[in-house]
Amino acid sequence: MRQMTGGSSGAGILGGLLLTAFLAACGAGAPKEAPLDTLSAEQIYKRGEFLLEQDNDPTEAVRYFTEVERLYPYSDWARRALIMQAFTYHKSKEYEDARQAAQRFLDYYPGDEDAAYAKYLMALSYYDQIDEVGRDQGLTFQALQALREVIEEYPDSEYARSAILKFDLAFDHLAGKEMEIGRFYLKRGHYTAAINRFRVVVQDFQTTTHTAEALHRLVECYLALGLTDEAQTAAAILGHNYQSSPFYQDSYKLLTSRGLEPKAKGDSWLASVYRQVIRGEWL
């Protein structure tokens, strides 16, 4: 029994010593990263690229890209690192930092082949922050402005088509905001306030998906106020452009139930819109 106990104890002590030695060796032998200022611009850049692509570590990756710019400010790698900073910040949803990096790139390299991409990243940093319709739309206006700049300044770039698509979606988003507020007023019987919102959609956002509903809501509002000429004219415009829309069917039923029909009447702002539609100048 003593031999077994002694052997077991000796084995335990030996195992503990071996483990301690192993851990000490690991700590002593762990390679230390060479100071970045001893590496070339390309080496630092590629470390950042590796961290971004292989390890999916954008925070650490952007540190390397920043160091390239700091240590080798006039090199071609600094130029590449700066656009990668903008890209990496955007990927991390650090939109303000992305815009700042992209703007620096445009300031330093306005004629570079990646300038269009830098401008596009700035636009995306606004566009990707657009929240649901109910939120403040300040970022939507900024996204529209930035997207317009991409379209106008780089019309032949590969980013222009995407910018056009996103511009249309952001534009539609703004119209949706007006519609939401208009419906809010309409539901509470504040017809004049509702009309003002729907009018904005008809006049300023007529190419969006919300125009048909805006015209129908105008029919509802004007009928509620007893302004039948305006209601009939709104329905006439709706029928001329969106006859197959369910909103036109609803407007038509509302009017005919009161002995009225879709027809341009009077000289209101809607009558002016109707005349433009007939001449093909509205849409």
Can you walk through the features of this model?
There is one protein chain. Helix 5 (95-108) runs antiparallel to helix 6 (115-127) and helix 11 (228-242) packs antiparallel against helix 12 (246-256). The chain folds into 2 domains: 38-129, Tetratricopeptide repeat domain (Serine Threonine Protein Phosphatase 5, Tetratricopeptide repeat, Alpha Horseshoe); 163-283, Serine Threonine Protein Phosphatase 5, Tetratricopeptide repeat, CATH 1.25.40. The protein has 283 residues and is mainly alpha-helical. Helix content is 73%, strand content 0%. The protein is elongated and about 85 Å long.
Low-pLDDT ranges: 1-31
List the helices and strands in order: HHHHHHHHHHHHH
Strand content: under 5%
CATH topology of the largest domain: Serine Threonine Protein Phosphatase 5, Tetratricopeptide repeat
Keywords:
2 domains, 0% strand, Serine Threonine Protein Phosphatase 5, Tetratricopeptide repeat, 283 residues, disordered N terminus, cell outer membrane, mainly alpha, elongated, Outer membrane protein assembly factor BamD
